[in-house]
C-alpha cells in the first residue's frame, strides 16, 4: 500500500500578499517569502488524526514514520525542481530539519532578535517556532 494514499495538489494564488509586494516593495510578514508568493500548495493527508490516550485513535508510530519518510522523499524531489521552497508553519512538515529556512527564510535572524528583546527568558515557544531550538524536542527542558 502506498504510504501516502491521498496526495492533494491545490493551486492557490496568494494574491493579497503578492499585491502588498507590488504596492510597497515588501511583504508585510515574518514568514518565508516563497510560501507567501507561491502559486502552488502541495499538501498530503493519510487517514484520520491520531490522539494518544483516546481509544481507537491511538497513533501508529511505524506508519507515521513511513509517512514522514515519504514526505521527505517527495519534498527532496520538489527541491530539485524549485529554487526556493517555503512552508507555512502550521501546515509544514513537523520533522523538517531545515525548518528555520522552510518556515521563516531570511526573516529568521530579525525575528529572533525581536523575540530576544520582548521574551528574553524564552517563556513563549512552540515546536519549530522562533527560538525553539533553545528547548529540548519535548519542550520540557531549556537548553540555553
Key phrases:
mainly alpha; disordered N terminus; 144 residues; two-stranded antiparallel sheet; single chain
What is the structure about, briefly put?
The chain has 144 residues and is mostly helical. The chain has helices spanning 15-24, 33-36, 61-81, 99-104, 108-118, and strands at residues 6-11, 40-45.
Tally of distinct domains: 1
Rg calc: 17 Å
What is the β-strand count? Answer: 2
- The residue fraction in helices comes out at 25-40%
Largest sheet: 2 strands, antiparallel
Cα separation of the termini: 43 Å
Walk me through what this model shows.
The protein has five helices and two strands, in the order βααβααα. It has helices at residues 15-24, 33-36, 61-81, 99-104, 108-118, and strands at residues 6-11, 40-45. Strands 1-2 form a two-stranded antiparallel sheet. The protein has one domain (6-111). It has 144 residues and is mainly alpha-helical.
Question: What's the layout of helices and strands?
Answer:
Layout: E1 6-11, H1 15-24, H2 33-36, E2 40-45, H3 61-81, H4 99-104, H5 108-118
Antiparallel strand pairs: 1-2
